[in-house]
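tool=predict chain=A
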Amino acid sequence: MASEEKQLPKTVKINGSYCQHYNAIHHAQFHRTQLDLIKGVDKTKLKIPEVAMQKWEGEVNEEIDLNEKAAWSVHTKALLEKDNERDKLLTHLFGIIRFNHYSPIQATAKAAEKLDSIFGKYIAANIQREGFEDESGHIVGLLNDAAPYAAEIATLGLTDTITQLKTVNDAYECYAPRQTPHTSTSVATSRAPTSQPPATM
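tool=predict ok
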């Protein structure tokens, strides 16, 4: 019985795509897809050594892992940036309150004294230097405490500061839940004590 021969073309045109950016994760996904396709074919026909398949799969898994770590690195950077923003806002808030204790304008000095009595526990605790989760909780408490004292806050020109502090803290908490226990610990322990800049006037 004569064997059947299949005539294969010399060249094959692959349908193009409209992808303009072929980044690392695209590369990893491409190889993962090809690997799955190859695994679905009869190994005896392909004659690809098992050791080669294992090596290929190991490299695909390693590339995916590296891409995940890179994504976490970007996420952690955004988290730290938001924390730095709220630290600056807190330092400014507390500095303005302390400074205006000495204001020659009686209404200003009284407003500063009232706010110091409300926020004194947060100032004494130096919440900017606390662990991230503790700081988040204290900022929520501070904002709740601030609500009845809008007039005093306005007198010291801190209305925008309070509003911005809430916005930044909310943004921080949108990032925070995505942290795994491991990455949360890593980020929390990366906070090094640094001197805070003086409050802007």
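The CA atoms of residues 82 and 172 lie 6 Å apart. The chain is about 70% helix and 0% strand.
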